[in-house]
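Changelog note: in this version the structure field was regenerated for every chain. One regenerated record is shown below for reference.
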Amino acid sequence: MTDKMIEVNGLRKRFGGHLALDGMTFGVHSGRITGFVGPNGAGKSTTMRVILGLDRAESGTALVGGVPYRSLKRPLTHVGSLLDAGALQPSRTARDHLLWLAHSQGLGRNRVEEVLEQAGLSAVARRRAGGFSLGMRQRLGIAAALLGDPWALLLDEPFNGMDPEGIVWMRGFLRSLAGQGRAVLVSSHLMGELQGTADHVVIVGRGRVIADSSVAGLLARASSGLVSLRTSSPEAAAVLTGAGASVREAEDGTLTVTGLTAEQIVSALSARGIPFAEVSAHRATLEQAYMDLTRDAVEFRAAEVSR
């Protein structure tokens, strides 16, 4: 694969009075998986549709290998996409669905058999797609995206509907695609899966980019100055807050502390005779980093449930 990329620069788009894209700008490089994440309504799906020429932006550009998607000849040989696993004719078999797509791009039957094998669908190729589970439809969508052996892939929520075996397969499959030099853009709400899969992440909110970073770099910044504490004492949080710290309690009872060093935490707790089992540098997860970055960019937020 050559060193190509998808370039999104300054996209703006409105739907009525709603500004869906507000200067969206980022790049998707070959040879790596780029996670594309953000709250509902952040502009992820609209951006992907603009890249694929399904929607038009009012301003800005979306280029695929240096040209607009609409300018590509035999586009499936350049970019493969999975936007909606349900977008198929349910009465067709998996093989016939792929043969129909292949014919539209001048691709042969042999390629259909290859992608069925890649997606793990050879054994069910003669089954009607309408009877497939969501996870199997996702696999069929992946097979369709690979038909033209493209250098770039855009996948919207590919983990949806996957069972544990399917999720493990998808992780390895995506990494293998990037390892072949392809540019892979993956939109997902499953932060744990992206943390273990993506090399880079683009976090968006309200139609614009909030963060554009390597996953490792983002987690390192999100972890800076955080200390994890395990204690059985219900007084620990109040003592640390009184010493000038900010304290957040996780569901497992672990306290995450900011504003004090590990040494200061030990000193404050020891001075009051508060027992503790562990004090260590905290490593943030992608979900925690994401929640912190998008706290003010959530457009649709449910009311908290009183207890």
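Spot check on this record: The chain has a mean pLDDT of 89. The longest helix spans residues 164-179.
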